[in-house]
Design brief:
The chain has 360 residues and is of the alpha/beta class. The chain has two domains: 145 residues, Nucleotidyltransferase, domain 5, CATH 3.30.420; 173 residues, 2-Layer Sandwich (Nucleotidyltransferase, domain 5), CATH 3.30.420. The protein is built from twelve helices and eleven strands. Strands 3-2-1-4-6-5 form a six-stranded mixed sheet, sandwiched between helices. Strands 9-8-7-10-11 form a five-stranded mixed sheet, with helices on both faces. The protein is globular and about 55 Å long.
Length: 360
Amino acid sequence: MTNENSRVLVLNPGSTSTKFGVYARDGAELVRTIRHGQDELAGFRGQPMLAQLDYRAELIEQALAAAGYAADGFAAVAGRGGLLPPTACGTFLVDDAMVAELRLARRGEHASNLGALLALRFAQAARVNAYIVDPVTVDEWEPCARPTGSPLVQRTSVGHALNTKAVARRYAREQGRAYQTLRLIVAHLGSGITVSAHQDGRMIDSNSIEEGPFGVDRSGGLPVRALVKLCFSGKYTQEQLDRHVFGDGGLFAYLGTRDLVEVERRIDAGDEEAALVFNAMVHQICKEAGAMAAVLKGKVDALLLTGGMAYSERVVSLLRSSLDWIAPIRVYPGEDELQALAEGVFRVLSGEEQAKRLGA
């Protein structure tokens, strides 16, 4: 059990930053973002993501010490969950099986793979447990959501489960209802976009990170035969194409910027190409939300907009004008994943939830 003075340390590694925070039951005591410049990361180019573990951990240790937090001052530690095998939602104990899976990186290299190992390092110093919460591979899909049309390829659930689930639970609390009783569409609008359908407390379908609307720097779904031709054109390596669809695609590929505010400035200045690409992205988000409404058979209690793009009045206004026929729209801008990690840990510490184990 926990008490009012229990603190948890939460860690969220990203590609060019590491966010961390210290949380008590009533909210954040400390939130910091450590930026990692290209010069600093250059030494890790070509290496597995986990090669950055010591580098990032030392920066966090220094920042915590400067803020007056001792290494043994935490009741638990949580990290963002990485590219693991498909899992249920919930809070998972970081154990040997999880560490081994992340070291193998069989499902890909991503900064989120550092989360569990960073959490374990700090948890061992504090002699407490390390956890992850709602990793990116949460899979609650219905069986009919998996086939693609070719037995050579299967759809897989990889998306922004942590923030998506946290926003759904938050909306449920505000309505005085159980999440399990609501039928929701949640659109996470960040550098990548995940639009999901929720029923009976489960995320029963969504686009994965390889599908759906294009985003700030991800291509989303592409015409298959045209992509096959590109793959065998001899113009690009596998690594170049992979980077183009995940990291250098979307708005960036068309307009040369990942800054949505800059894109809107161009639109206001009369840039027709910027307006076309921006409107195409919003159009695709609307189509995906409509698809999720069909998954829920048109019975939707609310449509929730979240992620960094939800700060944009232009994005939200365009989405409202196209989607308010589905259900009332609520906006939760940003992605408070640190808070979501902390809430998951406190549910375990208070006995409200039982920690799970990978593969159990």
